């Protein structure tokens, strides 16, 4: 018998990033509006890999959606099934202060109907108000095994108390911490993407933890095959062959610090031959802000703000580049850095997330403080004056991040949970 892995997402589809663009999969509603999803998040990529390397599991992604008026369902070519559930906003009180969060009674009802099936519940993050209801109804030995994937830096409430002097705020965080500890008693496994995040999780959870990251397709993300191919990629972008190209990709959110990158590069001497290439997307306000910041350098041919692309078009951006920049204030395990490592690029990164931990372990790339921007400038000038820092050996990166390796690590956890809850005949890997 196959085991069903149900990924319950903490948020609805991210319509706000593209309010006028229909998602890849969409349904028309009677009033002319639509609901839908973009199948590109964590559970889609992980599910595709797991289904590719094991026949013992089925995979579903459940999302609460404030726009949904019924349950919408679609199974993709990868075998991953998506379900959108009607949802409402509800007030929660994790500490002393009330907070708003998304809630789906329809999703909880669906879980109740499936209580006799061999199901593993995947939750994504653990400070999500709705997850408290899911764990309360479905956790513990009497129901489903619960496997939480800890995303990002996984900061727990007590870690936010440092430097706080407001008694009410302190009390709120302390109460939230206590509630979280009680809630997580009914959780079986929590994964962390970095050693830092794992240490944070241990402050609230004494059960099984695993160090598990996302993955990357090392058959697709490969070093540029020739000098000619690199020059062709640059020519498309209008970049000279002599320039040192720095690439950064991602959502236009403050965490990524693209605005700081533009400010730092804008202070470099004009005699340096470089191009800063930023590829991404965001809401209208953040996009317009970055466009304004990039305009002076763009006029000099030293900055390109590129719309976000995927597939071969995105790979061409990596192939056109020399150095990958990851200057976030927080990361779990940056997939964009994994792609850079697979392509053989040098990486300049802030010391956050698993990829930076691996850089430090192997003495590669360049690490800069999160908020010391003068040191960013010194490091970038050093690269321009002295040459590229060493890149991580591709074989090392492949062992850590290639999807077959990542999928097998997750499957191993699923097998243990299936044996404990359902017997060895369920979810066994051949």
Structure description:
- The protein has 430 residues and is of the alpha/beta class.
- The chain has two domains: 233 residues, Glycogen Phosphorylase B (Rossmann fold, 3-Layer(aba) Sandwich); 172 residues, Glycogen Phosphorylase B (Rossmann fold), CATH 3.40.50.
- The protein is built from 14 helices and 18 strands.
- It has an eight-stranded mixed β-sheet, with helices on both faces. Strands 15-14-13-16-17-18 form a six-stranded parallel β-sheet, sandwiched between helices. Strands 2-3 form a two-stranded antiparallel ribbon.
- Helix 1 packs across helix 14.
- The model has no long low-confidence stretch (mean pLDDT 91).
In one word, what is the shape? globular
CATH class label of the largest domain = Alpha Beta
CATH overall fold name of the largest domain: Rossmann fold
Number of DSSP helical runs: 14
Radius of gyration from the alpha-carbon trace, in angstroms? 23 Å
Class based on secondary structure composition and strand pairing: alpha/beta
CATH architecture of the largest domain: 3-Layer(aba) Sandwich
Summarize the topology.
Elements: E1 3-8, E2 25-28, E3 34-37, H1 42-53, E4 57-65, E5 72-75, E6 81-86, E7 88-92, E8 99-103, H2 105-113, E9 119-124, H3 129-138, E10 146-149, H4 167-184, E11 189-192, H5 195-201, E12 208-211, H6 227-237, E13 244-251, H7 258-266, E14 274-281, H8 284-299, E15 303-307, H9 311-319, E16 323-326, H10 335-342, E17 346-349, H11 353-362, E18 366-367, H12 373-386, H13 394-401, H14 403-421
Parallel strand pairs: 1-4, 1-9, 4-6, 9-10, 10-11, 11-12, 13-14, 13-16, 14-15, 16-17, 17-18
Antiparallel strand pairs: 2-3, 5-6, 7-8
Helix pairs in contact: 1-14, 7-8, 13-14
């Amino acid at each position: 018998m196959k085991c069903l892995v149900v990924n319950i997402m903490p948020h609805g589809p991210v319509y706000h990033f593209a309010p006028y663009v229909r998602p890849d999969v969409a349904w028309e509603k009677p009033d002319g509006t639509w609901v839908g999803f973009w199948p590109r998040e964590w559970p889609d990529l992980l599910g595709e890999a797991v289904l590719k390397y094991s026949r013992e599991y089925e995979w579903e992604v459940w999302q609460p959606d404030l726009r949904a008026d019924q349950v919408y369902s679609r199974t993709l070519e990868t075998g991953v099934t998506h379900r959108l559930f009607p949802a409402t906003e509800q007030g929660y009180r994790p500490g002393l202060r009330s907070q708003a969060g998304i809630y789906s009674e329809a999703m909880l009802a669906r879980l109740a109907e499936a209580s006799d099936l061999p199901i593993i519940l995947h939750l994504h993050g653990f400070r999500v108000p709705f997850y408290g209801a899911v764990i309360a109804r479905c956790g513990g030995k009497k129901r489903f095994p619960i496997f939480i994937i800890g995303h990002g830096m996984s900061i727990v409430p007590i870690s936010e108390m440092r430097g706080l002097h407001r008694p009410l705020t302190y009390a709120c965080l302390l109460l939230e911490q206590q509630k979280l500890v009680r809630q997580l008693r009914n959780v079986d496994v929590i994964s962390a993407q970095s050693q830092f995040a794992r240490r944070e999780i241990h402050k609230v959870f004494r059960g099984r933890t695993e160090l598990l990251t996302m993955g990357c397709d090392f058959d697709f993300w490969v070093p540029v095959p020739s000098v000619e191919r690199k020059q062709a990629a640059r020519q498309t972008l209008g970049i000279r062959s002599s320039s040192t190209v720095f690439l950064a990709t991602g959502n236009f959110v403050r965490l990524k610090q693209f605005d700081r990158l533009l400010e730092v590069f804008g202070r470099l001497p004009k005699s340096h031959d470089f191009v800063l290439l930023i590829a991404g997307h965001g809401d209208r306000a953040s996009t317009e802000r970055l466009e304004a910041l990039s305009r002076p350098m763009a006029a000099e041919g030293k900055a390109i703000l590129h719309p976000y692309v995927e597939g071969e078009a995105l790979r061409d951006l990596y192939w056109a580049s020399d150095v990958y920049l990851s200057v976030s204030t927080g990361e779990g395990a940056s997939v964009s850095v994994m792609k850079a490592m697979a392509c053989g690029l040098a990486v300049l990164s802030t010391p956050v997330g698993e990829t930076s931990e691996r850089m430090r372990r192997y003495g590669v790339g360049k690490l800069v403080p999160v908020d010391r921007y003068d040191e960013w400038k010194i490091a970038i000038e050093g690269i321009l004056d002295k040459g590229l820092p060493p890149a991580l050996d591709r074989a090392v990166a492949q062992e850590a991040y290639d999807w077959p390796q990542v999928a097998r690590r997750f499957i191993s956890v699923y097998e243990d949970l299936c044996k404990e809850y359902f017997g060895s005949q369920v979810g066994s890997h051949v």
